[in-house]
C-alpha cells in the first residue's frame, strides 16, 4: 500500500489546532472505561487473572504491532508533524514567554489595582461605619440633649414638658440606636427620671402648701372684712326698709336683694393666690397613674396643717387671728374642691372641718371656763358670728357652732346678770333719796329718754317749768339706764345668731325679773329696813311706784320691739316684787308713825276711875293730830298712799284706845273713863272731818260699838245671835268680856251698894259673854 501523502500543515492550521487544544476541557475523558468494571470483577470472581493477563498482553502486543505498522506507514507524516510540532513548540514557547511576561506585567499591575481596590473598599467601609457612627452619636447627642433639657425643665418647674419629653424618647421610632446597649440603658433609666420629676413636682407642691399655710390668715382676714362690709351694707339697707328687718345676712331675701360686688379674696389687689403648683402636681400624678397617692398625701398634709392651727391651750387674745387662719384654710379647700374635679371629695373636706370645729369648741370652752368678764364672751361671739357667716357663704355646716354660741350665751347671760346685779345693788346703796333736779330741757329730755313712764305722766312733766324736781330719785334713773344697757348687751350677743327667739325672750324675762326683784327690789327693801326718815321712805315709795310702772312699760316696749323680729311676748313678774316692797315701804311709814304715836300715848295720863266725865278731849291729842297731819301731808307721795298712811295711823290710834279699854295694862275702870275715851274719839273724828278725811272715822266703829253695848246696857241684846250678827258684827266678844271684867272689878271694889250691885251685874254679863263660841265675834 503506497504511503499516504504527508499532510502539510500551515501556520494558520497549527494556530487553529492549538486553539482547539485550548478549547478542550482537560477535565473530560474520551475513553470509556465503564465497561471494564464488570469484566475485571468477573475475572476476579472466576480466578482467571493469569488468562486475562495473557490475553491482555497479547492484546497489547497486537496493539503495539498495529501502532508500529501505523507508524511505519505514516513515518514521513510523523516526521513532518514532529517538525511542525517543534515549530509549534518553539512558537508556543515564545508565546508562553510573552504570555508569562505579559502575565507578570498584568499581574503586577493587577496586584496594585487590587490593593487599591481593597484599600478603596476598606475606605468605603470605614466611611460607612463612620457615617453610621456619626448618625448614632448624633442620635445619642439628641437623646442626651433631651435628657439634659428635661433636667433644666424640672429646675424651671416645667414638669409637664419634661414628662412629655420622656414620652417622646420612649416612643421614638426604631432606629439603629434602638438596638444599642446605650439606648437600652437609657430606657431603663427613664423610670428613675420619672421618679425625679415626680419628686420635684411633689416638692413644689409641698412648698406651695407651706406658702398657703403662711397666707391662710391673710385670706381669712380679707374674707372676714368682706363679710363685715356686707353686713354693714345690709344693716343700713334693713334700717331703711322695715320689710327687711326680719332677714339676716345670708338669708334668702338678703341673697336675692344683695347687690353683690365681685371681690375674690384669692385674687385681688392685696393678695393673689397661685394654685398652679397644685394643678401641675395633680396633672403630673394623673399622667403617672398615681393620683390616689397624691390624694392621700395631700389629705394627710392638710390634716397636719389643720392640727397646727389651734394651739393648746387656746389663748383668747389671739382668737381673732385663729378664726382668720381657719377661714382662709377652708376657703382654699373650697377653691381646690371646686377646681380640681375628683381630686378632692366633700367628705374629706368635711372631715377636716368637723375635726377642727370640735377642737375649736373644746378649746374655747377651756379658755372661757374661768372667765368672769362678759365682755370677753361678747368678743368671742362677735368673732364667731363673722366666722360663721363667712363660712356659711362657702356652704360649710355651722350648726354645731350655733349650738355652741347658745351655750356661751347662757354663761354670758349669767355673768352679765351677776355684773349688773352688783351695779344695781351699788346704785340702791348710794341713793340719796332726794328728787332729781333738772335745770333745762336738754337734761329733762335726756332723762325722760331713759326712764319708762306712763304717757300721761310724761306729758305732765313736759308741761312743768324749770327748774323741775322730778318725782323719782337718782337710783331710779340710774337703774333704768343700766337696764337699757343690760338689754342692749343682752341682745347684742344674740344679734346675728340663728336660733329660736322665744328662748331668748324667755331668758331675758327671767334675767330682768331676777335683777329687778332680787337686786333692785330686795336691795331697796334691805335699805328700807334701816331707814327711819319718813321723807326718805316716801321717796322710796315714789321710786317703787315708778319701778312698777317701768316694769309694765318695759315689757310692752320689749314686746313691741321683738314683734318686729318675730319674738315672743315679754312678761315681767318683777312688778309683783316691787308691789310687795312698796307695801313694806308703806308699812314702814305706818310703823314709824305708829312708833311716834306710842310716844304721844305715853303722855296720855288717863284717869281710869274718874268721878266725873270730861267735856274736853285729852291735851296730848292736839299735839298728836297736829304732828300726824303735818307729817303725812308733807310726804311726797300720792294721795292714795297718804290716805293709807292716815288709815294706818288712825287704825293704830283706835287700836291703842281700845287696848286701853280691853288690854291687861288697866285692871279696872268705870263708865266715866269710857265716856272720856269717847270724847277723845269725837275729837279725833272732828279733826279728820276737818282735814277732809271723814272716811277714816270708820276705824272707830269697833270701839264705839263695844263701848255702846256697855254704856247702854245692851249686853243681853248682844247675847242674842241674830241681834249680835246684825248690829254688833264688829264687836269682838273677848274684848267685850275684858271690858265688862274691868267694870266689874271697879264695881266690886266700891263700898256703896249700888256700885257693888252694878259690879256684880257686870261680872255676870262678862261670864255670859265668855261662854259664847270662842271663834264667834273675832
UniProtKB/TrEMBL annotation:
Record-annotated Exocyst complex subunit EXOC6/Sec15 C-terminal domain positions: 400-742
Keyword Transferase: no
Biased composition (Basic and acidic residues): 753-768
Region (Disordered): 750-778
Domain Exocyst complex component EXOC6/Sec15 N-terminal: residue ranges: 56-223
Protein's name according to its UniProt entry: Exocyst complex component SEC15
Domain of life: Eukaryota
Any GO BP annotation: Golgi to plasma membrane transport
Keyword terms, alphabetized: Exocytosis, Transport
A GO term from the CC aspect: membrane
Cited function: Component of the exocyst complex involved in the docking of exocytic vesicles with fusion sites on the plasma membrane.
InterPro entries: EXOC6/Sec15, EXOC6/Sec15_C, EXOC6/Sec15_C_dom1, EXOC6_Sec15_N
Membership in a protein family: Belongs to the SEC15 family.
Pfam families: EXOC6_Sec15_N (PF20651), Sec15_C (PF04091)
Amino acid at each position: 500500500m503506497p504511503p499516504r501523502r504527508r499532510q502539510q500543515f500551515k501556520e494558520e492550521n497549527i494556530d487553529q489546532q492549538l486553539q482547539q487544544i485550548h478549547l478542550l476541557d482537560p477535565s473530560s475523558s474520551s475513553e470509556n472505561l465503564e465497561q471494564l468494571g464488570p469484566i475485571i470483577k468477573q475475572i476476579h470472581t472466576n480466578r482467571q487473572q493469569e488468562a486475562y493477563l495473557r490475553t491482555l498482553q497479547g492484546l497489547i502486543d497486537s496493539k503495539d504491532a498495529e501502532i508500529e505498522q501505523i507508524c511505519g506507514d505514516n513515518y514521513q507524516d510523523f516526521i513532518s508533524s514532529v517538525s511542525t510540532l517543534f515549530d509549534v513548540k518553539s512558537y508556543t514557547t515564545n508565546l508562553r514567554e510573552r504570555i508569562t511576561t505579559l502575565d507578570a506585567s498584568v499581574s503586577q499591575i493587577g496586584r496594585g489595582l487590587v490593593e487599591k481596590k481593597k484599600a478603596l473598599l476598606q475606605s468605603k467601609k470605614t466611611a460607612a461605619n463612620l457615617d453610621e457612627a456619626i448618625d448614632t452619636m448624633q442620635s445619642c447627642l439628641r437623646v442626651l440633649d433631651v435628657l439634659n433639657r428635661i433636667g433644666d425643665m424640672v429646675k424651671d418647674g416645667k414638669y409637664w414638658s419634661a414628662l412629655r419629653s420622656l414620652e417622646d424618647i420612649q416612643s421614638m421610632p426604631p432606629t439603629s440606636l434602638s438596638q444599642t446597649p446605650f439606648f437600652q440603658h437609657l430606657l431603663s433609666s427613664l423610670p428613675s427620671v420619672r421618679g425625679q420629676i415626680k419628686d420635684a413636682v411633689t416638692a413644689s407642691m409641698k412648698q406651695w402648701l407651706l406658702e398657703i399655710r403662711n397666707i391662710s390668715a391673710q385670706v381669712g382676714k380679707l374674707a372676714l372684712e368682706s363679710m363685715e362690709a356686707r353686713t354693714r351694707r345690709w344693716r343700713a339697707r334693713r334700717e331703711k326698709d322695715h320689710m327687711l328687718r326680719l332677714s339676716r345676712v345670708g338669708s334668702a331675701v338678703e341673697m336675692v336683694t344683695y347687690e353683690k360686688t365681685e371681690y375674690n379674696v384669692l385674687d385681688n389687689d392685696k393678695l393673689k393666690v397661685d394654685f398652679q403648683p397644685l394643678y401641675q402636681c395633680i396633672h403630673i400624678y394623673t399622667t403617672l397613674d398615681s393620683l390616689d397617692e397624691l390624694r392621700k398625701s395631700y389629705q394627710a398634709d392638710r390634716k397636719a396643717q389643720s392640727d397646727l392651727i389651734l394651739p393648746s391651750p387656746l389663748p383668747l387674745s389671739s382668737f381673732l387671728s385663729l378664726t382668720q387662719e381657719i377661714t382662709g384654710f377652708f376657703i382654699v379647700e373650697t377653691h381646690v374642691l371646686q377646681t380640681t374635679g375628683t381630686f378632692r371629695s366633700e367628705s374629706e373636706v368635711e372631715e377636716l372641718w368637723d375635726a377642727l370645729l370640735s377642737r375649736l369648741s373644746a378649746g374655747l370652752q377651756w379658755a372661757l371656763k374661768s372667765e368672769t368678764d362678759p365682755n370677753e364672751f361678747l368678743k368671742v361671739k362677735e368673732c364667731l358670728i363673722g366666722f360663721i357667716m363667712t363660712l356659711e357663704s362657702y356652704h360649710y355646716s355651722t350648726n354645731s357652732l350655733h349650738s355652741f354660741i347658745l351655750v356661751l350665751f347662757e354663761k354670758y347671760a349669767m355673768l352679765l346678770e351677776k355684773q349688773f346685779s352688783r351695779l344695781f345693788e351699788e346704785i340702791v346703796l348710794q341713793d340719796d333719796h332726794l328728787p332729781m333736779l333738772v335745770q333745762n330741757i336738754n337734761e329733762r329730755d335726756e332723762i325722760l329718754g331713759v326712764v319708762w313712764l306712763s304717757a300721761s305722766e310724761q306729758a305732765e312733766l313736759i308741761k312743768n317749768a324749770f327748774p323741775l324736781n322730778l318725782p323719782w330719785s337718782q337710783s331710779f334713773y340710774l337703774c333704768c339706764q343700766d337696764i337699757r344697757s343690760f338689754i342692749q348687751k343682752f341682745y347684742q350677743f344674740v344679734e346675728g345668731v340663728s336660733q329660736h327667739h322665744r328662748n331668748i325672750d324667755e331668758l331675758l324675762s327671767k334675767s330682768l325679773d331676777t335683777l329687778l326683784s332680787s337686786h333692785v327690789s330686795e336691795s331697796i327693801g334691805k335699805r328700807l329696813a334701816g331707814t327711819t326718815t319718813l321723807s326718805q321712805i316716801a321717796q322710796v315709795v315714789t321710786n317703787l311706784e315708778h319701778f312698777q310702772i317701768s316694769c309694765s312699760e318695759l315689757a310692752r316696749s320689749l314686746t313691741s320691739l321683738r314683734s318686729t323680729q318675730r319674738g315672743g311676748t315679754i312678761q315681767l313678774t318683777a312688778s309683783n316684787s316691787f308691789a310687795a316692797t312698796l307695801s313694806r315701804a308703806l308699812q314702814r311709814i305706818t310703823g314709824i308713825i305708829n312708833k311716834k304715836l306710842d310716844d304721844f300715848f305715853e303722855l296720855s295720863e288717863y284717869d281710869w276711875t274718874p268721878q266725873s266725865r270730861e267735856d274736853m278731849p285729852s291735851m296730848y291729842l292736839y299735839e298728836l293730830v297736829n304732828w300726824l297731819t303735818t307729817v303725812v301731808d308733807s310726804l311726797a307721795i300720792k294721795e292714795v298712799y297718804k290716805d293709807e298712811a292716815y288709815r294706818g295711823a288712825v287704825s293704830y290710834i283706835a287700836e291703842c284706845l281700845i287696848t286701853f279699854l280691853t288690854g291687861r295694862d288697866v285692871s279696872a275702870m268705870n263708865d266715866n273713863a269710857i265716856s272720856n275715851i269717847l270724847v277723845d274719839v269725837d275729837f279725833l273724828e272732828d279733826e279728820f272731818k276737818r282735814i277732809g278725811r271723814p272716811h277714816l272715822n270708820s276705824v272707830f266703829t269697833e270701839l264705839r260699838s263695844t263701848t255702846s253695848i256697855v254704856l247702854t246696857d245692851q249686853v243681853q241684846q248682844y247675847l242674842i245671835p241674830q241681834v249680835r250678827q246684825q248690829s254688833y258684827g264688829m264687836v269682838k266678844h273677848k274684848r267685850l268680856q275684858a271690858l265688862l271684867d274691868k267694870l266689874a272689878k271697879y264695881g266690886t271694889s266700891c263700898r256703896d251698894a249700888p256700885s257693888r250691885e252694878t259690879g256684880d251685874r257686870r261680872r255676870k254679863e262678862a261670864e255670859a259673854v265668855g261662854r259664847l263660841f270662842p271663834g264667834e265675834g273675832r
